[in-house]
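Why should sequence recovery work at all? Because a backbone constrains its sequence more than one might expect. Tight turns favour small or flexible residues, buried strands favour hydrophobic ones, and helices have their own preferences. The token representation captures these environments compactly. In the example below, the structure is given first.
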């Protein structure tokens, strides 16, 4: 069993026990709230897993390794950067797709670049929310550094991952 699953199960179990100890009906309220959340996002989750499956069957591992793999170098960061800026959808769609890329050979650095590009700068969010609500001056002042940061974060994260792997040996 994955350590993350164990941690999540312990946290959920501990909080359920705490809720039950405080006031037993809270357990039912928590389960109802969880059901409401699941009913609100199940389509995005299903589509995210579908996209991950499609990535797996449509993109051979050699293609992913060539574009985003350990030997892809600066090109891998550029591909990750472009993908991160272009991929639509929220975390329920995005992260299953990224997990599929990792399972098929994408390396740490380009994946971190992709994640940073997606989370730091969304062109759609910039045009539909940030600029209209905050003004173009503030939106551009935030967007330009966010545009430059993803490859730097990917390179730094890759170096950190290599250091951590070397220390683990």
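From this structural description, the recovered sequence reads:
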């Amino acid at each position: 069993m994955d350590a993350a699953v164990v941690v999540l199960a312990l946290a959920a179990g501990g909080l359920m026990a705490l809720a039950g100890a405080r006031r037993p009906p809270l357990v039912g309220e928590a389960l109802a709230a969880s059901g409401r959340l699941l009913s609100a996002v199940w389509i995005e989750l299903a589509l995210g897993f579908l996209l991950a499956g499609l990535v797996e069957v449509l993109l051979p591992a050699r293609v992913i390794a060539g574009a985003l793999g350990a030997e892809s170098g600066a090109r891998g960061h550029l591909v990750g950067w472009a993908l991160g800026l272009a991929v639509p959808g929220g975390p329920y769609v995005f992260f299953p797709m990224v997990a599929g890329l990792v399972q098929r050979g994408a390396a740490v650095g380009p994946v971190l670049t992709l994640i940073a590009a997606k989370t730091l700068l969304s062109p759609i969010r910039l045009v539909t929310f940030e600029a209209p609500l905050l003004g173009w001056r503030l939106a551009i002042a935030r967007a330009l550094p966010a545009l430059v940061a993803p490859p730097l974060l990917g390179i730094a994260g890759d170096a950190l991952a290599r250091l951590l792997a070397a220390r683990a040996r």
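A few observations help interpret the result. Helices lie at 3-22, 25-58, 61-68, 73-86, 91-103, 108-120, 123-134, 136-168.
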